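Recall the central idea of this unit: under ordinary conditions, the amino acid sequence of a chain determines the structure it adopts. In this exercise we apply that idea directly, starting from the sequence alone.
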Amino acid sequence: MTKKIDTFVTTVAFVGQPNVGKSTLLNAMIGAKIAPTTRKPQTTRRIIRGIKTLGNYQQIYFDTPGVLRKETGLDQFMRDQIFQALSNVEQVVAITDAKDKIGKHIEFLRQIKQSTEKNKQVFMLAINKIDELKDKSALLDLIAQYSKELGDIEIIPLSATRHDGLQNLFDALNKAAKPAEFMFNPDFFTDASEKEIVAELIREKAMLELSEELPYRLAVTVDHFDESHREDSQKPIIHIEAILHVERKSQKAIVIGKGGAEIKTIGMRARKDIEHLLQCHVMLKLFVRVEPNWTTSPKGLRKLGY
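Accordingly, the structure predicted from this sequence is:
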């Protein structure tokens, strides 16, 4: 006798231009900060998977880098991450910014829609940042324009920062969920390791602190993650040592800052998020190392995990 499966699972890719809020949406959907979020392009570099389980439904989200047009080895890695995500999911949610004219996104959206039709995937559009619209009536016009250009697709207005419309997105994605055993324990919200998330959170704080060009030349690795005292009843603590990798000596000086002020600020800001994530006191030490031309060197890219 065949066992009846009463749980449903679906896999979903979040795609879109830089700065539309893909990572913010991922964090909001799962209720935890695992993906770095800044207003600077290329904050997300690799696929980050989030997991949301509610009732009998489990959704696995693939956050992806923004659309890229540069041609370094790092750019190619990020482009490959987008295609990898698109080839491994059942549904694709394209995300746009409610403040943008549709011309900024429509070519990309048409390409994604064509790809999903070819691969028999569900395609829908999420219009993010609706809370930032001064004229709320403009939203209806925006939805009408996207509908005219893209045809009969599901369009969901939402605000990831205010958690408005998230349940509507969850419900819409459940329509295509298939009967299956849960892929992950219902308590899990990601399959990324704590070390991986910690590295991304540190890089986020560095991006927020540093000048426009430097963040793109920056990578972070966690070299020491000592949790031997994590369960200590007197003083639970995790000791972490991370390295911020840059391409030139001049960049190293910028990251360190005058009298070490810059790296100290990065560390203080990162430690707060890391402690919230790990639910434990953290001793965080940051170092800066020069890895010449790592964004264009295959060896450098491999060494830093790209």
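Residues 194-303 form a domain with the GMP Synthetase; Chain A, domain 3 fold (CATH 3.30.300.20).
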